[in-house]
Amino acid sequence: MKSNKLIKLITAALFMALICVATYIVQIPMPATGGYINLGDCFVLTAGIFLGLGYGALAAGLGSALADMIAGYMQYAPATFVIKALMAIVVCLIYKALKKAFSSKLSVVAKLIAAVAAEAVMVLGYFGYEAVILKYGMGAAGSIPGNIIQGAVGAAAAIALVTALEAAAKKSKTISSFFKEG
């Protein structure tokens, strides 16, 4: 029991680092918004699915906010922490609920629905933050198309990665027992 908690903590720290690096290193600039597309959401969603509510949300929020701070987007770091943590929570809850409802042949549908819902949190979260907190008003709507593209890339990559990890987990008792508790 105690070693499993330690393994989860270490795995959460690794996910946090992966999220930070995937967000910061892989940047495709979006000149219209001043932001960028990255692969961080792939690992945010994966962390939510495999690590569960607590560890997944913390890894997602901290890793993403750290990337914002390193990249010079300090004004977004507080929102990013909350939005990415919520994404991990949403993908975790929806995927676990749908996984039970769908057969294993339809698990990709469960992943897709959960990922789309989580990415909707991201799109709406940044719109709300920019519109209200940063006081961009309806000008914040300009970031919606870029965030939708960001979400689509993250969701597609996460579905592929989670599917591969689940296949690996079926072949390993250690991995399988760890991820079933997530």
What do these coordinates show?
By secondary structure, the chain is mainly alpha-helical. Helix content is 79%, strand content 3%. The protein has six helices and two strands. It has helices spanning 2-24, 40-71, 77-101, 107-133, 144-171, 173-180; strands at residues 28-30, 35-37. It has a two-stranded antiparallel ribbon with strand order 1-2. Helix 2 packs antiparallel against helix 3 (77-101), helix 2 crosses helix 5 (144-171) and helix 4 packs antiparallel against helix 5 (144-171). The longest helix is centred in the first third of the chain and has 32 residues, at 40-71. The two termini are 13 Å apart. 40% of the residues are buried. The mean pLDDT is 90.
Shape: globular
Largest sheet, strands/sense/barrel: 2 strands, antiparallel
Helix content: over 70%
In round numbers, the mean pLDDT is 90
Structural class: mainly alpha
Strand order of the largest sheet: 1-2
Total DSSP E strands: 2
Cα distance, first to last residue?
Answer: 13 Å
How much beta, percentage-wise? Answer: under 5%
User: Which series of helices and strands comes N to C?
Assistant: HEEHHHHH
Radius of gyration: 16 Å
Q: Tally the helices: what do you get? A: 6
Query: Would you identify the regions where 5 or more consecutive residues have pLDDT less than 50?
Result: none
